[in-house]
Amino acid sequence: MCPLALRSALVFSCAMTVACAQVPPGAGERAAYTGLFAAATRGDAATIGQLAKQGADVKARDGYGRTSLHVAAYASQRGAMRALVDAGADPNALEHDRYDIVTIAAVANDLAALQVALELGGSAKNVTSPYDGTALIAAAHLGHVEIVRELIRAGAPLDHVNNLGWTALIESIVLGDGGARHTATLAALIDAGANVNLADRSGTTPLALARARGYRQMVALLEAKRAR
């Protein structure tokens, strides 16, 4: 395989790995849940309040390291999320793969749950995932532009570099498809002040990365900001 093809294959493999890294509760796990976990799954805020008053542990974790708050976030049960934090759940807790409720909502493209997570004290600045990334990087990778804009408003670090050597801006290019969603994501990051010249580990700049992929609209956006 030629170097360029090998690089493309590695990038695609990495993209799939990042996209699939989160592990929401499966059907069997949900069926087996009791107490706060069962209430979180079905969005039963009243039961959550009652159980918490009876001494149920809102910091307890399931077999994958998820708290009941993580479970509520995966299920987009916003009322349950509020009830759990009211009962003392940590909105910045990380589960087994180091995801928090902000990143869970971001990956799911769940704007309503993200807004609740931020309202409850979840931080857009948390370093999350096995990739030492952020919710912003995850959302940029997936082209979730409204999520990206919300995280930017919440103060997400624009130029955080994950352990792949990529920023959110770079991921919008190398893990995107050059289409409308990823181009809009790139534009949002540029408009917010992300560094357009912060290169990857090999020293390749975002402009060079976009040119190599033939992403003309992305190239135009970067050139308009005098990217090198």
Short description:
The chain has 228 residues and is mainly alpha-helical. It has 14 helices and no strands.
Describe the structure.
There is one protein chain. The chain is an all-alpha fold. The protein contains 14 helices and no strands. It has two domains: 125 residues, Alpha Horseshoe (Serine Threonine Protein Phosphatase 5, Tetratricopeptide repeat), CATH 1.25.40.20; 74 residues, Ankyrin repeat-containing domain (Serine Threonine Protein Phosphatase 5, Tetratricopeptide repeat, Alpha Horseshoe).
Task: Please give a handful of descriptors for the protein shown.
single chain, 228 residues, mainly alpha, Serine Threonine Protein Phosphatase 5, Tetratricopeptide repeat, 2 domains, 14 helices, disordered N terminus
Outline the fold blueprint:
Layout (H helix, E strand, L loop, with lengths): L2 H17 L7 H6 L2 H8 L2 H9 L14 H7 L3 H9 L14 H7 L3 H9 L15 H8 L2 H9 L14 H7 L5 H13 L13 H8 L2 H9 L4
Helix pairs in contact: 3-4, 3-5, 4-6, 5-6, 7-8, 7-9, 9-10, 9-11, 10-12, 11-12, 11-13, 12-14, 13-14
